[in-house]
Every structure is written in structure tokens, then in C-alpha cells.
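Progress narrative, work stream C.
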Amino acid sequence: MNWGSAAEFFAMGGYATYVWGSYAVSVLVIVGELLLHGRRRRTCLRRLGRRVRPEKNPS
């Protein structure tokens, strides 16, 4: 497609709400997944740290 101006590009031929809304939802889902993954990882590492205690070195 050829657009004559930036306004025409952002209007997306009348489908701007659908196109940009889809991009926004996709970005929100990806960011949410990254945040949840980080939280799950920290929780898992914390739980493993409680189970596996370092051995005490008798000196």
C-alpha cells in the first residue's frame, strides 16, 4: 500500500482502530508474560534456596 502522508499511514485506510488496537494488545500481553515469568523465576529460586541449604563446613 502507498500512503501519501503520515496521517494516511496512521489511519490505515480506515482500519486504524483495529490495527493499532491489535498492536497494543499484543504488546501488553508480551510485557505481562515477561513480568510474570520473572516473578515465577524469583519464586522458584527462593523456594529452591530454602530446600537446598549450604553444607556447614566443620573447621
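Work stream C, second folded protein:
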Amino acid sequence: MDQFIEFNSRHIGPGCPVCIVAEIGSNHNRDLPTVCRMIDEAARAGVDAVKFQTFYADDFISKHITPAEYGLGECYPQTTWQEALQEHLILPFEWYDELVARIRGHGLGFVATVHSTRSLSFALGHQPDALKIASMDLTNTPLLAAVASAGLPMLISTGMGSWADIERAVQVIDAEGCRDVVLMHCVSEYPADYQNLHLRFLGALRAAFLKPVGFSDHSLGVVSSVVAVALGAGVIEKHFTLDRTAPGPDHSFSLEPGNLQRLVTEIRQAEQALGDSRRRISEQEKQNAVKYRRSVVANGPLQAGDAVTRERIKLQRPGHGIPPYDIEQILGCTLTQDVDDEQVITWGMLCCRQPKTT
């Protein structure tokens, strides 16, 4: 069972700390100081890794496609989508050395989404900790095989994919001998509507493929990611920006620094709350049991030699005396000492033997 993978000197899988990935994507606005600050803010928020999208425009989309066909004509009028990518959205390759060093300087993992064998070769030159396959490439079997053969952990987004698409992708990756794979549940809407998330699918993914699962979250806010963690997601990926009002395709559904920190905080709290499957009683609960539970007490003053009857006892706090479930054991027993009204009755006050506890 491939339920765990290695990532940046850590494990990802059931019961392991969640790996939180801040997706910078195109939100750098092709400005080096901006992307440097984004890395710093992501580290300050407490994420585990930063992700870039690594691609060449002409590997990515036809020159005949316009931004207007993607609903982005206002952002990039009178241009092709290739030109918009090149001029505004591609992270310049000459920045990678400095940016990856900055990521490493913060002790974070580096993840690269690659879209072609050419961008894969470039990304490998910067020693990423993992490679990501975007949802749009779930059916791109040549790319899947090439990335799988690189020998690095893979994050596979499943947005827009049918069950058959996911099965095929896993088969291609397994055939290349890649076992360190996280299947990322994803809904390719921007933003994704809550009613379309179907986060319970995480359980079906993990059960069917016996691999760690994660969630690439395009919904607004942080609640969906926290719920995904509760349902078994070992990786959470979330788009990140310095300003949600900035122009560009991804800013509006991304998290700003304050909410990115909130995401990390709430996921860590969720991990603590999940704990494990064993029944545990905290030390505070044990103390509270004495204060809040009830014991057998005298219903009026009683004398030594009196027999215990239902009329002569009642149940009150505190809970350090004979518990209610032992009432039948003490009926008919006689008291060995006088007892005040509402005084807790203990086994030492009775002539009968205390039953063994299980």
C-alpha cells in the first residue's frame, strides 16, 4: 500500500502533518520584488512549500486563442493569449535561481507545475522537491510518463477528470515506477462553488488507489481546505496573492497574507482536534468528572444500622462517591456509621463489598 510518500524530508499520508502549499501561479504580476515579497509572506504565514507554474507560452496554448475566449478580454485586450502569457503571466526563467534560493533560505519546499517536457527539463535544473501535474494535463499521457520517470514525488490534480481519466493517469504513472504520488481532488472553477466541491470524494480516491490524497482548493476562504483536512487530505494547495483586487486571472479567488496565515492556523488546529482513533480522556476531563458527575448521597440524615433503600438515597454532585450504576449493588446494605443529609455515601460506610470494576 502506497499510503505515504516522502517530501522535503517529511512524510505525507494518513496521520502525518498536512503539507500546505502556497501557489504563486501568475499572481507575481511579472514583478521580481512582488514575487520575493510573496515568498517572504508565505514563509511568515507558516506554509510548508511554495509552488511556481513553469511553462513556455508556445508549449501551453495556441497563438490563435484570445484572452476574450477565456473571459479575460478586459485584462488583456487586443492581444493573443500567448502574448498575454509571455508579457504578464509567465514567471521569467532568469529569476528562478534567486527565487528558489529564497524559498530554500526560508526552509520551505519548492514545487513546480510543469506543462511540457521542455519546462520539465528546466524545472529539474532547479531541484524541486515535487512536480505538479495541473488538471488540464490529467489526460496528457506523454507528459505524465515523462514527469513520472523523473523520479520525484508527484502531485496530480484531478479537476475536470472522469474516473476513467484518473485511472488512466495512475496506470501511466505506475508503469513508470513512480510510487510517490498524491492524488489532488480539484474542481476547476475559478472560484469553485461550494456545492460543487464534493469533498467526500477524497475518501473514494484514497480507498480506490491506496495513495495519499490532497485538495487543490479554488474556493473562496479557508473553510473548504479545513474540511478537506478533516476528510483525510494530506496536502492542501491554495492560490496566494498580495492583493485580490489586482488585475489578472487568479487574484480574485486567492488568499491574501492574513488569510493565508489563518489557513495555516486553522489547519494546524484541525490536526490537533482530529487526534487519533483511540478513546482518550484528558486530565482535565478526569478532574471534571469528579465535579460534574453524580454520586449516591443520603436523602435525609441516616443512622448506623439503617438499611439502604431507594427512599433513603438520591443522586447529586460531586462524583467521587458510589456511582449511579452501582445503586442496585447497595440496596439492602446497612450503614456502619451515621450519615448527614446529602452527605456522599462511600463503600467504606457500608457493610457490603464493593464490586469489581471492569
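The CA atoms of residues 66 and 81 lie 5 Å apart. No further action is required on this item.
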